[in-house]
Each structure stands twice: as C-alpha cells, then as structure tokens.
Amino acid sequence: MLIIKKLTKYFAKNSPHETLALENFNLRIGKGDFITIIGSNGAGKSTLLNLIAGTFQQDKGEIRLSGEMISNLPEYRRARWIGRVFQNPLLGTAPYMTIEENLSLSLKREKRGLRLGINKNLRNFFREKLSELNLGLEDNISKKVGLLSGGQRQAMTMLMATMFKPKVLLLDEHTAALDPESSKKILKLTQNLVIERQGDLITLMVTHNMKQALEVGDRTVMMDRGRNIFDIQGEERKKISVDDLVKQFSILGNRKDNYIEDRMVLI
Amino acid sequence: MSISLFLHALEQGFVFGIMVLGVFITYKILDFPDLTVEGSFPLGAAVAAKVIASGGDPLWGTFLSMIAASLAGLFTGLLHTKLKLTNLLSGILTMTLLYSVNLRIMGKPNIPLLGKITLLGKIKDYFPNLSMDYLIPFFFLFIVVILKFIIDYFLSTEIGLTIIATGDNEQMIKSLGVNTDFTKIIGLCLSNALVGLSGALFAQYSGFADVNMGLGTVVSGLACVIIGISIIKIPTIFWRTIAVLLGSLVYRLIMIIALRYGYSLGFKPGDLKLISVLLVIIALSVPFIKRKLNFAERYNLGRKDLQNNDGKEV
Ligand SMILES: Nc1ncnc2c1ncn2[C@@H]1O[C@H](COP(=O)(O)OP(=O)(O)OP(=O)(O)O)[C@@H](O)[C@H]1O
Ligand SMILES: [Mg+2]
Fold it and tell me: What sections of the protein cross the membrane (chain B) (predicted)?
C-alpha cells in the first residue's frame, strides 16, 4: 500500500514566483496497482513523483509505504524500495561508466561495502537480464553507456529500475523522448516487467498519451493544478473512451480562470 | 640529456605522482576541482617535518601527515555538503586556513631536515650498497605503484563505483540509494591523504618543509592529469591511473628541462609557474580547438549537456 495524504508542495515559497505545485493531494494505491497519471503541463505530475521518491521535500502532508512513513526520509534512503525512469534517457544512467557498472550500482541499494562491485556471478546474472531486452547489450557489457542510443539507455534504465525488485516503480513520461518504434518497445518492456512481478509492485506512470493512459495499467488519475480531479478504475474505466478524456481536458481548458491560457499569455 | 637529470625527473615524477593521483580522484573522478590540495601538500610536509625534526619515527610522521591531510579534505567536504558552499569556495577557505595551521604546526616558516632520520635514510640502511641516486626513484616508484593498485581496487568496489557515479551522474546515483554527501567526503579525504603523503615524502626527499611549498600544487596536478590523459586515452581506471602517473613524469621532465636549459632562452626559475599554467591552458584547449574544427562533433552530446530540469530544485 502506498498512501499519500494531503500532500502539498510549493516552489519558490514566499517569493514573487511562488507556485503551488501540489495541493492537498490524496491517493491510496493498493499492492499490484498500475496507475496511469495524466494532466496538462504544469499539473504537478512530476512533482508528485519527485515527492514520492524524495527528490523534493513536501511542505505538508505525508507518504506511507507498507505502513511505514517515508516522507521524511532522504531520497537515498527510499531508493531501496523505489525504481525510477525519467523522460530524459540521459538521466537514468551514468554515461562514463560501463553497462555492467551501471547495473551493479542499481542492484544493491543499501549497505554497500568494500566487496568488488562486479564479479563473475553478477556478470552472468547481468548478461541474462540484458538478453531479455533483446537489444544485444549482453555482448557489450563493458561498453560505456554514453555510447548507447536513447532507446537502449532507456531500456537499461527500465531494467535498473526493476531488477532489484522494488515496491514502487515511478515512470515519468518515460517513452516520450523516444522514436515511435523504441517507444513501443519500451512500453511493451514495461508491461512485461510489471507482469513478471505478479501483482507485487505498485506502478505510477505519467503519460500525455490518452490512449496509452487507458490501455496500460488498471487505474487512471487525472491531475489539474496540483490536485487529483479524476480517478477511475474497473468497469468505469473500461467504458470510458479517449474522446471522453479529451472532453474532460477541454472542460478544464474552458474554465474562466484558465491556468493554461494564463501561462500562454505570460509566455 | 644526462642520466642524472633523467633520474631527477623520475624521482620527482613519482613523488609528485602521489599528489597527482589525489588530484585525479577529485578532478576527474568526483568532478570536484579541489583547491584544498594547495594547503594539504604543505600540511603533509609540515606534520612529517615536525615529527622528524623532534626526533620522532619518520614512518609515524608520514602516517600522521596522511591523517592530517585527510582531515583537511573532510573539512572541505563538510563546508561543501553541509553548508552548501560551492566546491571552489570550500577549497579556497580550507586552503587559506591551512596556511595558518601549517605555520602553527611548524612554529616557523621553514624546518630543515638535514641530519635528521628520514624515511629515505631508514630505507638506505636496508640497502647499504645501493646508491641514493637509484634507491630514491625505486622507493618512490614502489610506493606509487602500490598506491595505484590500491586506488584501482578501491574504485572497483561497491563504494568505489558509487564515488565514480557521483562525479558522472549525481542525480542518478542519489536515486539509486547513495548519499552523495558521503561519497564526496570519502573522495576528498582519500585524495587529500594522498596529497599529504606526497608532501611528507617530498619534504624528506628535499630535506626541508616550507609553508610556501604548496604554491602551484593545483595547477601542476591538473597539468599532469591532463597531459597524462591526452597521451593514454584508454578510459578504464587501470589505464587512467597509469596515464596520470605518466603525465606526472612528462610534466617533471618538461619542468626540469625548462629549468636547466631555459636560461639560454631567458627563463628564470620564477617563470616555472607561468610555464605550467601555459601547459594547462594549451592541454585544455586542444580538445576544444579540435572540436571547433570538427563540424560533426558540434552536435555531439557532451557531458555538460546532461543537465535537465527534472529532479533539480531551483
Ligand atoms: N524545480 C522547480 N522549481 C520551481 N518550480 C517548479 C519546479 N518544478 C516544477 N515547478 C513548477 O511546479 C508546477 C508543477 O510542475 P510539474 O513539473 O510537476 O508539472 P508536470 O505535471 O510534470 O508537467 P509536464 O507535463 O509539463 O511535465 C509547475 O508550475 C512548474 O512550473
Ligand atoms: Mg513532468
């Protein structure tokens, strides 16, 4: 269970640029749930994931994972439960380190010591895992990651985010920066990796693709101006169409105090 | 060139090579330009000289100098990670503070070690038949090789990999469960311990410690690292530590030749610092100029392009 209660986050608090990125945000996620999150630019989706991971500290509210309060732990202490993939494929891997070194770094997320980071057993394990990606990376495990393509790096990041059996998987538009072909592959990989965990993993996936949002996962949350405004699952979700979702978006868009348009005017 | 000139270059290349390994760890591995070394080099010299001059065991003095210098690294690390000062400012503060500390330790600006029992003298007792001319470079080579392998091993351990990753993609390694304050501090302590050891050995080799002997350590360290890495380009740790040591040799050779034969060109010893700065500027600008010339590479994503607003709080 991941329980998010009254989560609030300001940026540049008490300054002329103060932004309320997340406001009294509530969400309860059961074990095995795969949630897709949609919402316009600036809705607070990335902020939500960053707060769960501990990259940022909330101003108010709390986050509990399997009953344990994690919202006051630093990011590095939460990493043992949380796997992440970012939109930018360059963010998830260390370019000047080799494929096997990157994998080694992500496998053991606490109590690292003076043992060698890579040994024969680990290397075989990495080869096996890499071969499941079908990208031929298993034959190049001492290649620097910076030499790989964006799609290959994103696939590696996916592997790194799941290989250590996390409790939570956070995906922030992780297919958005890829070409359609790689994007499809990564999405397929995501689904396979989640299925592999047999309902033992909580997944949050941010996407701007409405079709994807409804097809993948089993619950969809829409965010607007830092709030959870729409949350559907089960039969209700099966019935809803992409058109309905788009309509929902345009209702938000026609609002008097239109946030998006305000922003456009300002730009 | 005479053989003795060459032996001098070896001696100095190796003894300063220990310092270069330290600079390599901060500058290249951690991506942390650490100015502390400007103070921790003479700190190492001061501590060792103080112990030796008062009749203490030189081995003990040398060991203490490493401890003292690693504390200097710790101090810089705390300024940077806890008080959030920039890496440059943290180093400058520690380096300046160390000037006073070093004077305090020594009690005077200069401690001569002539006639005292140094580490080199002790080694000589074991090999009475070997001339100092050969003993010294071999001794320094021995130490630097051992340190090289220790560093290579350390950087391939679980903790070592997280230190490399801290310099490569800090945001990533934080999200993989690493406290980067800790890795930075470890790197700084290790680096400065090496620099302090280098200072301690150099003092015993040259027969004195002086508060001003750290002047230019940063630049010469950088020069060695950059020269070395531009000669050997194999990007594994094993080869990179060899590269920087080779860089150290080449650099000392250039310096010794400049000092020896530069007179006829009008150089003075005081110009050495200028020469080393020019070396750094040239070495740093070569890849840049190459890139300017190479059109295709302009669009290459370099390391500094990796920053992105995700995960970085303004
Ligand atoms: N690091 C930051 N510093 C200051 N303001 C920020 C920062 N990150 C986000 N914000 C602000 O917080 C609000 C929410 O941003 P967030 O990145 O969470 O939106 P998002 O839903 O992920 O949007 P997008 O779909 O464009 O990725 C925005 O108004 C944004 O300008
Ligand atoms: Mg976002």
Answer: 12-30, 59-79, 86-105, 134-155, 182-205, 211-232, 237-260, 272-289
